[in-house]
Design goal:
Elements lengths: L1 E5 L3 H13 L3 E5 L2 H10 L4 E5 L7 H10 L6 E6 L3 H10 L3 E5 L3 H16 L6 E3 L2 E4 L4 E4 L2 E4 L2 H11 L8 H9 L7 H18 L4 E5 L3 E5 L1
Parallel strand pairs: 1-2, 1-3, 3-4, 4-5
Antiparallel strand pairs: 6-7, 7-8, 8-9, 10-11
Length: 222
């Protein structure tokens, strides 16, 4: 597996690169946002690890640019422990997960494994519900001639809802099934993604609604 790792603190970068290399990952370390964007544009990576606070371009700016180009490579953000707004903005921009600094190397490895595992588990069948279709090959949510490209976690959330038509899924179920047991994402993260998916449906002009019932859960309804 090939990873791009963007971190401006050289000692941290060397330590993390050594650990990842020891665990059989191929790693390209870069030290600022501009370099990260150049590498991500020139090479194909299985995953990208971005520190939020970097010179040149921030990790959030790099992420925004990549997603605007349609790049769906899984991204793990490294954020300062107190910067909650950075985490929320990163998830809104299409990050797949985040890890607060300082972190244990074991947790970083677990997050990387989870990020790459989600990518490998995608299924090829196009799913349909009412006027919507969900294409795992392109991550496109379609309604008629309109389409929206989903991020990795948006896709997994939509896939779970498509596969459980007519069933309310609790926020806790969505959290564990989409983000996994080893993630420190919380129920607020689920709500952020639900809100984002609702906006996607509105932009597409779909008749499908993502409805919720207090203390019960969420469900797609036509």
């Amino acid at each position: 597996m090939k990873l791009l790792y963007a971190e401006d603190e050289r000692q941290m970068s060397e330590a993390v690169t050594d650990i990842l290399t020891f665990h059989k990952y191929s790693v390209d370390p870069v030290y600022d946002g501009n370099e990260a964007l150049e590498y991500a544009s020139a090479e194909k990576y299985d995953g990208i690890i971005l520190d939020v606070m970097m010179p040149g371009k921030s990790g959030l700016e790099v992420l925004k640019e990549l997603r605007s180009r349609g790049d769906r490579t899984p991204v793990l953000l490294l954020t300062a422990k107190t910067e909650v707004e950075d985490r929320i903005e990163g998830l809104d921009l299409g990050a797949d997960d985040y890890l607060s600094k300082p972190f244990a190397m074991g947790e970083l490895l677990a997050r990387v494994r989870a990020m790459l595992r989600r990518r490998e588990e995608w299924k090829p069948d196009i799913m349909k519900f009412a006027d919507l279709s969900l294409d795992p090959g392109t991550f496109q949510l379609r309604c008629g001639s309109s389409s929206e490209v989903l991020t990795n976690l948006e896709y997994r959330l939509a896939e779970l809802l498509f596969n459980n038509q007519g069933i309310y899924l609790s926020a806790e179920t969505l959290l564990t099934r989409v983000w996994g047991y080893d993630s420190d994402a919380d129920l607020n993260t689920v709500r952020v993604y639900i809100s984002g998916l609702r906006k996607r449906l509105q932009v597409l002009g779909s008749s499908v609604k993502l409805i919720s019932r207090r203390n019960i859960g969420y469900m797609l309804s036509d």
